[in-house]
Design a protein that fits this description.
The complex is a heterodimer of chains A (10) and B (215). With 10 residues, chain A is largely without helices or strands. Chain A has no helices and no strands. Chain B has one domain. Chain B is globular. The chains are: A little secondary structure (10), B mainly alpha (215). Chain B: One of its GO terms (cellular component) is endoplasmic reticulum membrane.
Amino acid sequence: ADVIGEHDEL
Amino acid sequence: MNIFRLAGDMTHLASVLVLLLKIHTIKSCAGVSLKTQELYALVFACRYLDIFTNFVSLYNTVMKLIFLGSSFSIVWYMRYHKVVRRSYDKDQDTFRHYFLVLPCLVLALLINEKFTFKEVMWTFSLYLEAVAILPQLVLLQRTRNIDNLTGQYVFLLGAYRGLYILNWIYRYFTEPHFVHWITWISGLVQTLLYADFFYYYYQSWKNNQKLHLPA
């Protein structure tokens, strides 16, 4: 689940 | 997670593994720019500051550890390994990469999404990653012909960035609030830097020649 707002990409 | 991003991460992983494999097996780093590798180590160090404080997913954490470990071990090999370091041609790898670090830091202080230490360092790592390949591309121009592992390394890096652009397009259309101009613009600039390399890489592949870049 991609965390909203935080940087979830490498 | 979408297929473009997964493919992008896997391509990025492949690029560092190709490089580590080359250096570890043939104990040579000929044609590899240490400056680019140092910049990448700095990029990951600044980007993954939150690796232990902000858990996104197991995949995310594992990949961050792999990227940190591989980039620092490549730098270690090229600087300190008694055999590998001899094959590093420092008089060719002369790009003053410190001149890249400062402008990226200033730009990150000026243009960022949130003026906090972690966010500025994260933005700095984005801008720095966009230009980190420059010493390597300059070195390839100098040494003219490229051994195919280094060529593959740069090709995979470019492919990873291209796939990430597809990932951002996909996320823009599927996630309503997903807008990150800073990421998109710096990612686009980075991918454009590879464009001319791709052109020569494709030409050499098509004509089945040894890849060499024009002086």
